Amino acid sequence: MSLVRDLFVRNWGLKLFAVLLALALWLILIPEEKTFSEKTLTIPLETRNIPPDMELVEKPAVSVDVTVRARMRIIDQITPANVVAKLDLEKATIYQEEYPLNQSMISLPPGAEVLRITPSKVDLRLENTAQIGLDIVPTLVGKPADDLKILKVEVVPPQVEVKGPESKILKTDKVTTTPINLAVLTGSTEIDADLILPRPEMRLVTPQTKVRVKIQMEKTEEPAPAPAKKK
């Protein structure tokens, strides 16, 4: 027991120094690849700060592969949940279609670095935003009852302001309504109908999503019975 105690106690300062020195040499001389590791993550590519007077008409790839490097003790903590790729379009123009991806666009946990981004660039296209007032045309389906005749159909308001990419908005476009079935009507009526835009790239300028369709009808005279044939 005395020998064991002496092994740890005698010259303990020198022994502690030797252990610390050995640890320092191990950290200095050990190959770097033994303490660091790499992994590749597939993460969403977010587009930010699209200029308010422009529209994104051709979107970039929805995700990119990011190869990161970090110490082995934290590499497993790096996941797609804490890595973000942001493409800032604040200074974008309608004339640029290729946008490089670089390390500054990737947000990583502390202690990690970006080695590669694949692809290294993305293609996208912007257009100027156009705004126009379009006529609203009600969608009437079915046939009124035989004793009813339509006198007038009015839409209130008759127009709505829409906006979208300038190449997707035409002056000849019409905004329609959800179908209104004439066969179930028994007389003049007013119906609130939802608006349907001609293209998915368009959007309404105001929160208005419905219009009122006024249908004026009148009763028709019943036809006189046909005279009986003489025998």
Structure commentary:
The chain folds into 2 domains: 36-123, RNA Polymerase Alpha Subunit, Chain A, domain 2, CATH 2.170.120; 130-219, YbbR-like domain (RNA Polymerase Alpha Subunit, Chain A, domain 2, Beta Complex), CATH 2.170.120.40. Helices cover 13% and strands 44% of the residues. It contains 3 helices and 17 strands. The strands form 4 sheets. Strands 2, 9, 11, 12, 13, 15, 16 and 17 form an 8-stranded mixed sheet that branches. The protein has a 5-stranded mixed sheet with strand order 6-4-1-3-7. The termini are far apart.
Strand count, sense and barrel status of the largest sheet are: 8 strands, mixed
End-to-end separation in angstroms reads 143 Å
CATH class of the largest domain: Mainly Beta
Based on secondary structure, the structural category is mainly beta
In percent terms, what proportion of residues is strand?
35-45%
CATH topology heading of the largest domain: RNA Polymerase Alpha Subunit, Chain A, domain 2
* Total beta strand runs: 17
Number of domains: 2
User: At CATH's second level, what is the architecture of the largest domain?
Assistant: Beta Complex
Broad shape = elongated
Tally of separate helices: 3
Gyration radius (Cα, Å) is 37 Å
Average pLDDT, rounded to a whole number, is 86
